[in-house]
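Give me the 3D structure for Glycosyltransferase family 1 protein.
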Amino acid sequence: MGRTFVFLPPLRTVSGGLAVLAAVAAGLATLGHNVRLVLRDPAAPPLALPPGLPTVGLAETGLTPDDVYLVPEGWPNALAPGLAVGARCLVYCQNWAYLWNGLPDGVGWDQLPVTFLAVSDPVARFIAQATGTLPPVLRPAIDPARFYPPPAKPALGPVRVGYMPRKNKALAAMIRRLAEARMARTGISYEFAPIDGLSPDGVAEVLRGCHIFLATGFPEGCPLPPLEAMACGCVVAGFAGFGGFDYMRQARSGGHVPSVPLRPIAWGGNGFYAGDNDVFAAGACLEQAARLWLDGGGELAAVLESARLTAAAYGPGEQQAALARIWKEPGAL
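Predicted structure for Glycosyltransferase family 1 protein (333 residues):
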């Protein structure tokens, strides 16, 4: 195998997906691969680049047929330098909903000599449904040195709920209003903590001070904020975005059952999940999570332990092992 080129899209703000691409490039370099970052404008990188990795412009990549060229979904035009020379072009799909973004009308993936890499098992199954081929899975990683539980959660006066307003803002507001409208009848008092515009360390600090994380994002490929919340000792409630069912499992029976088959995992129920866009059910999930904290006991301890095991399965070591396996397997790329 030759070199590996990783295209970093010219986004205005640093997204989770962009950070994952940079982490993949750094991980491959750590494994001894010859890695180069491809930028549309090397003079204006879209994020702080991993140290020590050379950069090349999109117009002068120097790709050869022996090289691997990794491009995220949604940027098919960036594949052009690799397709032109017959490089092994690999599309890393981090969100199933963007699989066909950017492709011209009348052009399908079956017409292009590319292979796929999926960010989660649900995304891999979606790609298989669309293309007939099940791709390998490369999951993202969270940083355990940054996302970890506090010695103790805040005392239960109000139940403190962290959420990200940018994730389906109107629906998040509706779920919050529903919970607040029911407080007099449920006896549950909430304090909502918006997580917006913070550094990763700031996000972790807020999560450590919360009992619940309200997940309002969809569609998702393998959502990192709920994983980070689990690592910080929160019970997650809300939406899975389809891709979240790579790791999300219902804490109680009778909840939403996803249409995608669920892979075997080594943990039990780690939260309360509604069907995407179902505000009624998401409100009930939030209330179940709050009751769990207020009641305490063995059920709360079991859910928190499952959440801890879930987060531990998405560490940097697990991602490195997957990278080593995928870049070594004949025919995987």
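The chain has a mean pLDDT of 94. Let me know if you want a second pass.
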